[in-house]
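Request:
Um, any thoughts?
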Amino acid sequence: MSVDISLSVNGQAVRRAVAPQRLLITLLREDLGLTGTHPGCDTAQCGACTVLLDGAAVKSCNVLAVQADGASVTTVEGLAPADGPLHPMQRAFGQHHALQCGYCTPGMVMRAVAMDREGVPAEPGAVCHALSGNLCRCTGYYGIVKAACQGLREMRDGREGGA
C-alpha cells in the first residue's frame, strides 16, 4: 500500500507515492537524492537530520513522509542557490570553523536558521540552549555557537536593510 503525497522541497513541487511508514529523511536522501541531510542516531537524539518543515526545525528521522504532505521542506541544499552566494548562516559556519568532520554541520546549520523564526537572541547562552538537541562529537561547540550568533545577526541585519 502507498499514499500519494505532494510537498515542496527546496522550492520545487514534489509528488510521490510513499509507503505509510517511510521516513522523511529516507524520502529526501533516497528518493530525491538530497544527501546533505545526514542520518545519525535514527532516534531523534543527535539532530544531524534536521530540516525545516514549514520553517520549523524538525528531525527528519522522526517524521513520516506522509506527515509532510502539503508542507514546505527546506534542506541544507535549499538554503542558497547552487550558483549564488552562501546563506548567511552557512558563511558564518565557515568563518568560525564551526565544523570538523562536518557530519553534524547540515543539521546544526538548519537548527540555527530556525532560531531566527523562533526569536532566539543572538547571544551565546540562548543559542547554546536552542542547540541543546543537536550533538557534535568533534568541535566542542565554541565555533558553532559563535557562528550561530553571527549568522542570526546577519540574517536580521539583512532584513532590516531591505533584503
